Amino acid sequence: MESGPVPELAEPARACAQRLCSAEAVVLASHIDADGLTSAGIASTALARAGIPHDVVFKKQLDEAAIADIAARPRETVLFTDFGSGQLDIIADHEAAGDFEVVIADHHQPADADTEFHMNPLLVGLDGASELSGAGTAYVLARALATAADEQEPLRVTGGERAADGGRVDNRDLAALAVVGAVGDMQATGDGLVGANRGVVDEGVEVGVLSEKTDLALYGTQTRPLPKLLEYASEVRIPGISNDQQGAMEFLGGLDIDARADGDWRRWVDLSDEERQAVVSGLLQRALRSGVPAEKAQRLVGTTYTLQEEQAGTELRDASEFSTLLNATARYERADVGLAVCLGNREDALERARRLLTNHRRNLSEGLDVVKQQGVERADHLQWFDAGGQIRETIVGIVAGMALGVEGVDGDRPIVAFARKTDPDGDPETKVSARATGRLVGRGLDLSAVVGEAARAVGGDGGGHDIAAGATIPAGKREPFLDHADALVAEQVGE
Question: In terms of Cα–Cα distance, which of 180, 201, 197, 173 is closest to 45?
Fold first, then answer.
């Protein structure tokens, strides 16, 4: 590898990889969302192939207590993936105290501190919110790690090798997981993944683990029966089809396709290209006749990513469905299950993940019902709801994002969600999650700055990305937090 999939990160990746190769053993610490799980899966696989002993630990929030817990583990080196940059000031203090040596592969806004082995797209002029995810950064590290390890001794490969022209030997097969992470981190638009993510996609396509194409851009094309695919689609709401089971079935019955086979509804993946075209054309025509703006109707079609080595018709075949499956594990304290799936377990772990996914979907649906029933409150420049204990704090951000598409919620305002949580010492706290749209970000909104600054103003802390961010604040500080956040949104996007 000369410059790797992301040339801007080639030098820091090489330095980080060489440092890991010199470690006797490593603690790999990662976040619990889909991007964090895929980051850990990529890094763990790369470390194993390089023959580097390591343990994996997950944290839903990287604060002082979590970092102290990691520091107490009997390993000299800690690799942080999908977090670490934003907590670099705390990490640097531990490193200076000799608690551990650190390597960071992250894409969040860095704190005002420094360490020698630090990979982050933001440090080389790339946008960590849209151009490279945590998993993408971990993938760049994995590619460099393959080279660094091979320079020291032949790379030890688990699960067999590919042909000499690529694949497992140089870790390019891990590009598929990196794309799942990027999609799960909301970096894919209708035009697909952009920026530095393109280098990751291209390598995955080159070695045959990934395919990229223009297709129906609805969630569930691999697993949902056609009527459910259309009924539950939230990406573009079409009157008479969306949230209307009978309407969806009648729409399919009016098309010149066989929507059933042997009495059962077919799935999108079961259709021929001609049948898919008939459905898409019918949906577009119905949307336009129903008054859906043409620009919005066009979002029915977009760039999709298929994992070529996964079984067709399963959640793992489509990057979007794979990322949702992973979200259903760690957010319910089963990060071990999500990691096992990322590492290739297609038996017990996958079955457990599917059961967790069923529970996750039910909780999201019930959470969205809570928002619909209680509605949202409006400040001057944002909107918010307080779920209290009715929605798990680990999924309230997902519910907030889903709420941006429901009636009565303004898509032109960022939404802030609150949920009750308890810290490890048993003290009550409030979880804050904020979501926005790409249009708002284009107008200058940066939720990472809004949420982080507002949280610190009331004695909490937080951060994230311009389009999605989170924080923890002391209980009882909701109103002053909202006052600060609303003023900051006003400064960024005005009226």
Answer: 173
